[in-house]
Amino acid sequence: MDDKEFFQAVAHRTGLSRQEAADLTRATLETLAIRLSDGEVRDLALELPEPLRGSLERGRGETETFGPAESIRRVREHTALSKSEATRGVRAVLGTLHEAISQKEYDHAMSQLGKGYARLVEAG
């Protein structure tokens, strides 16, 4: 899956425009990178198209621990989407990520993110 297909899948899942989906995807990946270990970010980046890797790289650094609600808040801050749009959006990005990378890598990322993120994806 290339970056355009990724954005299109997010747009389809959320009902947002392709540009809004692209902004949402970048903000979500950057936020997730803050939650993940540097090694996990590196492994995840290797399975994503080059244009999406930059979003992960921007989020790298000191790992912070926070739940899905804080991730959604941070995505809202970056995108100016409503709470419901950002919630749907984070869910859509995680769902599309699941399709875009190997099951093994997705499972590794989700194990670091925690059960709250898994429940968010399952709710979609």
Q: Could you give the topology of this structure?
A:
Layout lengths: L2 H12 L3 H18 L2 H10 L2 H10 L8 H12 L3 H18 L2 H11 L1 H9 L1
Please tell me about this protein's structure:
With about 120 residues, the chain is an all-alpha fold. The chain is built from 8 helices and no strands. It has helices at about 5-15, 20-35, 40-45, 50-60, 70-80, 85-100, 105-115, 115-124. It is globular, with a radius of gyration of 13 Å.
How would the global form be characterised? globular
Which topology does CATH recognise? Answer: Globin-like
Unreliable stretches (pLDDT < 50, length at least 5) are none
Contiguous helical run count: 8
- Derived structural class: mainly alpha
Q: How far is the N terminus from the C terminus?
A: 21 Å
Concise overview:
It contains eight helices and no strands. The protein has 124 residues and is mainly α.
List keywords for this structure.
mainly alpha; Globin-like; globular; 81% helix
